[in-house]
Design goal:
Blueprint (H helix, E strand, L loop, with lengths): L2 H9 L1 H4 L6 H21 L7 H17 L23 E3 L8 E3 L2 H14 L9 E8 L2 E8 L2 E7 L5 E3 L2 H4 L17 E9 L2 H13 L8 H9 L4 H5 L4 E7 L3 H7 L2 H10 L9 E4 H15 L7 E8 L2 H7 L1 E2 L2 E2 L2 E5 L4 E13 L4 E13 L2 E7 L3 H7 L6 E5 L7 E4 L25 E3 L6 E3 L6 H12 L11 H9 L14 H4 L7 H14 L4 H8 L6 H11 L2 H6 L2 H5 L6 H12 L1 H12 L22 E5 L7 H10 L3 E3 L8 E4 L5 H9 L2 E3 L1 H7 L1
Parallel strand pairs: 2-13, 21-22, 21-23, 23-24
Antiparallel strand pairs: 1-6, 3-9, 3-10, 4-5, 4-7, 7-8, 10-13, 11-12, 14-15, 14-17, 15-16, 15-20, 17-18, 19-20
Helix pairs in contact: 1-3, 1-4, 3-4, 5-12, 15-16, 15-19, 19-20
The structure holds 2-(butylsulfanyl)adenosine.
2-(butylsulfanyl)adenosine binds next to β3, β8 and β13.
Length: about 700
C-alpha cells in the first residue's frame, strides 16, 4: 500500500463507515506515519514525502482528534504545540548533575590529555586509548526525560544542579521524538544533548523577524536560547529549532550492558534519537587530532555552528576509573577551534590618510587572538559606520574574523560605557599635512585636500606606483618609501628614477648590496607597458582594467593627455565620472610635468603592443569571457590581446557575451555558454581570428 492509500483509508474511517478500522486504530496509524516522516526528514535528513503530503495527513489526524478528544495520544505530532503561555518556568533539580567540560586549545593539550588518561588508569604509556568523538555543537544543553519511552520532561542546564522545566518549548522540536522506537525501551531514560538552529534557518528567521519589526538575534545560539526561554510555546513552535543527542545519564545496569559510549550512541540512535553523523570513534591522540582537523576543515560548510570537537574515553569502565574533578569529567575534554569572535576594548580611533586623500578611521584595539591571528587594529571604514555601530573610545567591542576576511569591529551588547566618553568626530584638518578635510557630496568618505603636499598621500601614491601590478619596482617596500618621502628625496614618482647610490647607502639598514639591487630594479622597471604606467599614475577611478583599455585605445601618452571628455567616453567602460576624473588629472600642470619627467627619465613601453584598434578586426566591439587553461597564453595575456583589438573581457557568461574562449578543463561557464547559445572558441580558432 502506498502512503497515499494509507492516508485515504485513514480519512474515510468513520465518515464512510466502509472501513472497519476503529478511530483509535486510525489515529495510531496516522501518528506512526507522521512520526516516521518527521524522523526521515529531521533525523535522517532524507524526506520520504513532500511537505504537502505531510500536511494532508496532519490535517486528517487533527480532524480525527477533534471528533475524539478523549482518544488523543501523547505522542501525536499535534501535541507538540499545546497549552497556554506560562507565567514562568518551574525550577527542577537534576537527578544527575549536568557537568561541564575541560578545554583544550593546542595540539599539545590533547597529547597531554591522552597521556593523563593512561597515567591515571595505570596503563602503559604505549596503550592506544579508544575515544568517542563528536562535534561540539554551539547551542544550549538540555536534559530530556522519557518515561516508558514517552517524552516526559525537558530541563535546561541551569547552574548544573537546578535547571528550568522548558518541556512545552522542547516538545515543539520536530527532530525530537515524542515516543521512542523499538521494544527494549527502558522504563526511565534521561538523555543529554544540544538544542540549536541551523545557520540557514537562523538567517531566514531573522529576516522574517525584521520584516515583522520584531527582535533580531545576534547568532544562531542566541536565537535558540531565546526561543527556549519563550513563555509561549506557540512562538517556540514557529521557530526552527533542532536537536542532537550526545549522551545519556544511564543506570549502572545499562552501563554494564552497553560497555562503551559509542555503542550507547548507536542504541540511542536506534530508538529514533537524532545523533550527528559526524560522531565516530578515534584511536589515540593522533586519531583525535586527525578528527579535529577533518571536522575543522568542514566547519564552514556544516549547516550548523560548532565551536570545537569533544573527545570522550569510549569505555565506560575506564570512564568510571578516571572519575571527575570539580565540575568536569576527567575522561572527556572539549578541543576548541580558535574563536572567530572575541571580546576586546576600543583603545583609540585613529585616522589614516589614503592615496587619494580619503580619511579612514581605524580602531586601535587591545590585542586579541581571533581566528588564529592577533588583531590590534582594524578599519572602521567611515564615519557613518562608526555612528551606525555607536562605537566610542573605551567601549568593550567584539572583534570578528570569519575565515580570511579582514577583522570587523562590532558593538558588544554587554558593554558598560565610560560615563565620560564622547562620540568620535572627524578631524577638520589632515593629521599629516594639516590641510583642510572635506566631505564630498554623495560620498561617505572625508578627504584631505592636500594632494601630493600631504606626505601620507604622497607615500601611498609612490607605493601604488611601485606596485607589482603597476610599474613594478621589486624591493621597494612601504617602509622604505616612507623614509624616502620623509627625507624629501622623493616628492613625485619621477624622483624614484633620480635616486643615487651614494645617498641610498647612507640610509639605515641599507647595505651596498641592497642599494645596488634597488637601483637595478628601478632601472628594470623603466621597461614597462603603457597600461601599467597609466595604472601606476593612480588617477582616481582608473583601475587596472580601465588603464589597459585607455592604453589600447589611445596608444600614445600625448593623445591621452590631450583627449577631451567626449573622446574619453568612447573607451570601453569609461563613463562620465571616470572621464571627468582623467581630464582633471591631466589638467593639473604638476601631473603633466610628472608624466613628461618620467618619459624623459627613460620610462618607456613597446609601441607595437598598443597599435590602434582596427574597426574591421573580428574582435572589435565583441565581449569575451575566458575560461579553462590555455596552452600558449596566460588568461591575462589573452585578455590583453583581445583588449588591444578593441574587444572587451568580462567575468561571467551572459546573453551579452559574444565569445567564450575555452581552454583545457573549462567548467560551468561552458555549460552556461551552451545554454545561452554563446559561440565557443577553442584556442586554435582564437589564434586564427587574431
Ligand atoms: S558532552 C560532562 N558532547 O558543551 C559534560 N557536550 O562544555 C558532557 N556540548 O554543556 C558534555 N556539544 O552543552 C558534550 N558533543 C558534545 C557537545 C557538548 C556541545 C556542550 C554542552 C555542555 C558543554 C560543555
Amino acid at each position: 500500500m502506498s502512503n497515499l492509500d494509507l492516508f485515504e483509508s485513514g480519512c474515510t474511517d468513520d465518515n464512510s463507515g466502509s472501513s472497519d478500522e476503529s478511530p483509535i486504530t486510525a489515529m495510531r496509524r496516522l501518528i506512526d506515519l507522521l512520526n516516521r516522516w518527521e524522523h526521515a526528514y529531521y533525523v535522517l535528513d532524507a524526506p520520504e514525502v513532500p511537505d504537502s503530503e505531510y500536511d494532508k495527513v496532519y490535517l486528517a489526524l487533527q480532524q480525527l482528534e477533534l471528533r475524539h478528544p478523549d482518544l488523543i495520544q501523547i505522542d501525536s505530532p499535534t501535541q507538540r504545540v499545546g497549552g497556554k503561555p506560562a507565567d514562568g518556568f518551574e525550577q527542577v533539580r537534576h537527578r544527575v548533575p549536568m557537568l561541564s567540560l575541560g578545554n583544550a586549545f593546542e595540539d599539545s593539550d590533547v597529547i597531554a590529555f591522552d597521556r593523563r588518561v593512561k597515567e591515571l588508569a595505570d596503563l602503559p604509556t604505549d596503550t592506544t586509548i579508544a575515544y568517542a568523538v563528536d562535534p561540539k555543537f554551539d547551542g544550549l544543553a538540555i536534559s530530556i526525560h522519557y518515561k516508558n519511552g514517552v517524552f516526559e520532561q525537558a530541563i535546561t542546564r541551569g547552574d548544573g544542579t537546578v535547571g528550568e522545566d522548558v518541556s512545552a518549548n522542547v516538545k515543539t522540536i520536530r527532530s525530537l521524538p515524542l515516543k521512542l522506537r523499538g521494544t527494549a525501551i527502558p522504563e526511565h531514560l534521561e538523555i543529554r544533548g544540544e538544542i540549536f538552529m541551523t545557520k540557514k534557518d537562523f538567517l531566514l528567521m531573522n529576516q522574517r523577524q525584521a520584516e515583522l519589526g520584531l527582535k533580531v538575534f545576534a547568532n544562531p545560539r542566541n536565537a535558540a536560547a531565546g526561543t527556549i526561554r519563550q513563555l509561549d510555546p506557540k512562538v517556540a513552535a514557529s521557530r526552527p529549532l533542532r536537536f542532537y543527542c550526545y549522551g545519556a545519564a544511564l543506570e549502572r545496569e545499562q552501563l554494564r550492558e552497553l560497555k562503551t559510549q559509542s555503542s550507547m550512541m548507536r542504541w540511542l540512535s536506534e530508538m529514533g534519537l537524532p545523533v550527528s553523523e559526524l560522531s565516530q570513534t578515534a584511536l589515540g591522540a593522533q586519531g583525535l587530532l586527525t578528527f579535529y582537523r577533518t571536522v575543522g576543515d568542514r566547519r564552514g560548510a556544516l549547516p550548523f555552528e560548532i565551536d570545537g570537537v569533544v573527545y570522550k574515553v569510549d569505555s565506560f569502565d575506564l570512564q568510571d576509573q578516571l572519575g571527575y574533578v570539580a565540575k568536569a569529567p576527567r575522561f572527556a575534554v572539549a578541543h576548541k577551534f580558535p574563536p572567530d569572535e572575541v571580546l576586546s576594548r576600543l583603545l583609540n580611533i585613529e585616522v589614516q590618510v589614503g592615496r587619494t586623500g580619503s580619511i579612514t578611521p581605524v580602531a586601535k584595539l587591545e590585542p586579541v587572538k581571533v581566528g588564529g591571528v592577533v588583531v590590534s587594529s582594524a578599519t572602521l571604514h567611515n564615519l557613518d559606520e562608526i555612528q551606525r555601530k555607536d562605537l566610542r573610545v573605551g567601549d568593550q567591542v567584539l572583534v570578528r574574523r570569519a575565515g580570511d576576511v579582514i577583522p570587523e569591529v562590532l558593538p558588544f551588547s554587554g558593554n558598560q560605557r565610560n560615563p565620560g566618553s564622547s562620540a568620535f568626530v572627524m578631524p577638520t584638518h589632515c593629521p599629516i599635512c594639516n590641510s583642510l578635510v572635506r566631505k564630498e557630496e554623495g560620498e561617505a568618505a572625508f578627504r584631505c585636500t592636500g594632494g601630493l603636499v600631504c606626505k601620507a598621500q604622497l607615500t601611498q601614491s609612490i607605493i601604488h606606483f611601485a606596485h607589482r601590478r603597476a610599474i613594478d619596482i621589486e624591493g621597494l617596500g612601504s617602509k622604505l618609501v616612507e623614509v624616502l618621502v620623509d627625507k624629501e628625496w622623493v616628492k613625485t614618482p619621477a624622483d624614484l628614477f633620480r635616486l643615487e647610490f651614494d645617498a641610498l647607502v647612507q640610509l639605515e639598514r641599507m647595505g651596498e648590496k641592497s642599494a645596488r639591487n634597488l637601483l637595478d630594479s628601478i632601472e628594470k622597471a623603466k621597461q614597462t607597458t603603457f597600461g601599467r604606467f597609466l595604472f601606476g599614475l593612480g588617477i582616481r577611478h582608473v583601475g587596472e582594467a580601465t588603464a589597459r583599455d585607455l592604453a589600447a585605445h589611445f596608444a600614445d601618452v600625448d593623445r591621452l593627455m590631450n583627449a577631451t571628455e567626449e573622446e574619453l567616453l568612447e573607451v570601453n567602460d569609461v563613463g562620465p565620472v571616470v572621464a571627468e576624473s582623467i581630464r582633471q588629472f591631466f589638467d593639473e600642470p604638476a601631473n603633466q610635468q610628472v608624466v613628461r619627467d618620467l618619459v624623459s627619465l627613460g620610462v618607456s613601453w613597446p609601441t607595437e603592443e598598443i597599435k590602434l584598434t582596427d574597426e574591421s578586426h573580428p574582435f572589435f566591439g565583441k565581449t569575451f569571457v575566458l575560461t579553462g587553461t590555455l596552452s600558449q597564453y596566460s588568461r591575462d595575456e589573452a585578455g590583453a590581446l583581445i583588449l588591444a583589438r578593441g574587444g572587451k573581457v568580462t567575468g561571467s557568461v551572459s546573453k551579452k557575451t559574444d565569445y567564450l574562449l575555452a581552454g583545457e578543463a573549462a567548467g560551468s561557464k561552458l555549460d552556461k555558454a551552451a545554454a545561452l547559445g554563446v559561440t565557443v572558441l577553442d584556442e586554435n580558432t582564437f589564434q586564427g581570428m587574431l
